[in-house]
């Protein structure tokens, strides 16, 4: 575990109408916050999440309660789950796409607000997170809006900086 650069890779899939599947996005490489399910401690330090090997992401020892915590996912798909090796094996899990507001619907809404398509054309590919964040910040500057801090979802006390900026920008624009 270590501090990460702001590298964020976000994949999208836009299935054709006939498949009946919904368009979706998911995170391939992103800094995530970690939570100890035993004592709820969240260090202000991100872990770089790049999926798993057969569902195993990694693990850490909680610096507050010393519980050993393992991190798993659905074989590179959300949710990401934290399980403490303590009596009862308490767990918490997060769908980071939802917490970070990087779902298809969020990106569509942000794209409409900035009048900039943030999801490239085509069936699948990558969303340029830095360009998307810049588009929001340009729109905020154009409207001369005061910066607002976005509330975080239940159970989330801290998010790494590039995502904090994204959440605040969406909130500031009323998205
Ligand atoms: Zn703990």
Give a topology summary.
Layout: E1 9-13, E2 24-32, E3 47-49, E4 56-61, E5 68-72, E6 80-84, E7 91-94, H1 96-99, H2 104-114, E8 124-127, H3 129-143, H4 161-172
Helix pairs in contact: 2-3, 3-4
The structure holds zinc ion.
Task: Give the key terms.
175 residues, alpha+beta, four-stranded antiparallel sheet, 4 helices, disordered N terminus, binds zinc ion
Which distinct ligands sit in these coordinates? zinc ion
Share in helix: 10-25%
Q: Work out the count of structural domains.
A: 2
- Biggest pleated-sheet summary: 4 strands, antiparallel
Strand order of the largest sheet: 3-2-1-8
Low-confidence stretches are 1-5
Strand content: 15-25%
Q: Please tell me how large the radius of gyration is.
A: 17 Å
Oligomer: single chain
Global outline: globular
Terminal Cα separation, in Å?
32 Å
| Strand count | 8
User: Mean pLDDT, rounded to whole units?
Assistant: 93
**SSE order in H/E notation?**
EEEEEEEHHEHH
Question: How does the helix and strand content classify structurally?
Answer: alpha+beta
Work out the helix count: 4
């Amino acid at each position: 575990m270590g501090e990460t650069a702001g590298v964020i890779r976000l994949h999208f899939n836009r299935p054709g109408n006939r498949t009946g599947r919904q368009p979706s996005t998911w995170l391939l490489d992103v800094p995530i916050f970690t939570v100890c399910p035993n004592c709820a401690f969240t260090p202000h330090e991100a872990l770089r999440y790049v999926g798993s090997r057969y569902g195993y992401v990694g693990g850490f020892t909680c610096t507050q309660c010393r519980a050993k915590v393992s991190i798993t996912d659905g074989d590179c798909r959300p949710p990401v789950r934290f399980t403490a090796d303590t009596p009862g094996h308490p767990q918490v899990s997060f769908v980071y796409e939802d917490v970070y507001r990087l779902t298809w619907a969020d990106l569509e809404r942000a794209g409409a607000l900035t009048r900039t398509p943030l999801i490239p054309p085509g069936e699948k590919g990558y969303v340029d997170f830095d360009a998307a964040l810049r588009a929001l910040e340009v729109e905020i500057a154009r409207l001369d809006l005061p910066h607002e801090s976005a509330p975080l979802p239940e159970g989330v006390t801290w998010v790494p900086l590039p995502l904090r900026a994204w959440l605040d920008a969406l909130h500031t624009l009323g998205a």
